[in-house]
Amino acid sequence: MQRPAPDDPSIAQLQAALQASEQISSAIVETAVNAIITIDANGIIETANTATVRLFGYQRAEIIGKNISLLMPQPYRDRHDGYIQNYLNSGVNRIIGIGREVVGQRKDGTVFPIDLSVGEAVLPSGRRIFTGIIRDLTERKALEDKILHISEEEQARIGQDIHDDLCQQLAAIGCLAKVAQKKLTKAGSAEAQSLAEIVDLISKANTRARETSRGLMPVVIDSGGLMKALEELAQSTARAFEIACDFRYDNPVQLADNKLSVQLFRIAQEAVSNAVKHGQASRVDIHLARQSGNIVLHVRDNGIGIPDSPAKGTGMGLLTMSHRAQMIGGTLKIEPRTGGGTQVICSVPAPAKNP
User: pTM to 2 decimals?
Assistant: First the structure.
């Protein structure tokens, strides 16, 4: 078969089309809003677009040929090569093809939240490359934090109103009813018993209102802080749902950071609520400890476990817990327990103890 000459029009057209395709692909990558980076199987950066330069603050020449871990804070920087090698050795995929929220580090040392999507390609030569698409989440996280903060403030305001207004009124009504009940009892009236029942109901309503108020503004540093709030959470859960709910600790955990305390309490509160309402648990254990420089909160239950299709509202609760953990620089794990049930583990770096 006769081969076409090098100057054959068909060859020239193919070369022109290939060159045009490469130019279009390069232009798309270069003008993309999100940072796009390619690395080889050793984690070495091969290409980076303009958005990468803008996002991380490095010039292209400063990162091309360097390990991708340059763009990560510790401890991920030291671990990243191990992640790649484990994948290449085992084939177990933990991130490729899956978007996830992680953190990056700029040239000036600033650590910031990012959404990372990783894709893998095997070239005709058999060489593997990985493409990472990175989106800055700083503004979105700031907005989420602001919304959550506003929500906390509003809950605290409502809780304070219940405590200062409703509870005081119920207490006053209870006192008046008790005085009337004593007078009827002294007079031998048959209505005294009915009024005694009303007094008891008012007392229970006042207790429940106080518990609700405490749940809305849970952590007060000068009255016991997080440990006291978790203890009251366990007690009120046991009373309200008639289940076993205990709070324990190995050593006292005193936190002077009210924001950290509130977020840990909210995570515990959501985990307990999920265990009772969705997990149908008859026992819930809350545990707080200092471990290896971290504050670790465990909430364990003996319920039916995590359903494959979470009930309405459960998914949002899980997302909220995860976001609260991220807000305080922590991690959240929700996993099934051996023998049934679920455990929620939140670990956050412990603040330095006061001298």
Answer: 0.57
